[in-house]
Amino acid sequence: MKRLYETLIREHLGEHRQMVFLTGPRQVGKTTTGRVSAGPRHAYLNWDIQSDRLTLTRGPARLAEALQVSSRSSSGHRTVVFDEIHKYSKWRTFLKGWFDGWSNRSRTIVTGSARLDVFRRGGDSLMGRYLLYRMHPISLGELLRGWSPEKEIRPPRRSGKDAFRHLLTYGGYPEPFLKASSRFWNRWQRLRADQLFRDDLRDLTRIQELGQMQVLAQLIESRVGQPVNLSNLASEVNISVDTVRRWILSLEAVYHCFIVRPWHLNVSKSLRKQPKIYLWDWSRAAGAGARIENFVAAHLLKAVQGWTDAGLGEYGLYYLRDKLKREVDFLVVRGGDPWFLVEVKSSGRRGMNPNLAYFQKTIGASHAFQIAFDLPFQEKDCFSESEPVRVPAETLLSQLV
To answer: 177 by DSSP, 3-state: which?
Structure first.
């Protein structure tokens, strides 16, 4: 299926000389999107292919010669796609040399299933030579419409028959979502977990205790949406607190999980240190309540990172909780200022969470939503409301990226 990132990358290639860094989870569609966006004349090199590895280790000049990319050429730009090049210990030095020598005659897309700005293994800084785009699983907004980088919020749109339910059940990775089969989902999950722990983490970190790392990942899946207690996790996995902290950073780096931190500005007696943790693949969250909260968290993270990557401003995702145990699930911040609050409920029959009104008044957020998953879609702009309001999950999420 066509991904919204294709439009974004094509616009980048036409307007900017900086390299595209396209990062995201394994099997989210980065390679396909990168190659389709690059056009029919692109060159593709994958570090995992032995012949390509030999070409890359010979250096940028030999590559330019092999691809007939010359700084003196009068022909159009040649687009080159480098896949998984971050596994090369000198990848940053290579890309710096490639960009500095041949960016006037080529355009470059770099894709990888680990954070290209995390695994810095030597070489000079690439600052100013690339723009980062973070590719997420399919969201409801992406499913319903293409990319519209000029706007943050779009009009609500109803999803097709079963699309919303399939997205919640099978996750947003293209293959299991399109198959919509429990049997395929089970087999795909086993294969992906093996690749994640036996390939990605082994290749990109020095962690040897991969069995214990998998135990930690399973514990995280069972505690989605809960404040992270490093001491408890360390005790259950039988490792130190510092090791738990380092391993969670590694799981973040390979896009297994992400952290949502508490917002404390203008909130008296707020929590400051305990983050909550969620999965990139919400379909793995244990329990129906955790899954719907993770589903919303992933949509909000995709929105704030998508808006930021598109150049609309700086956005962030947080949650609210104070020492009196008043809590709201999510807060979206725009330009450093609170923008809208989101509380997640499975049923619309539940009363309005009074903490929404309290925190909206306290921090000055423009909107406060309590979304319910059993309410039918309504064709009404949620962002037209300034007071705390109960809205269908399908309606609000359809307005995001």
So the answer is: helix
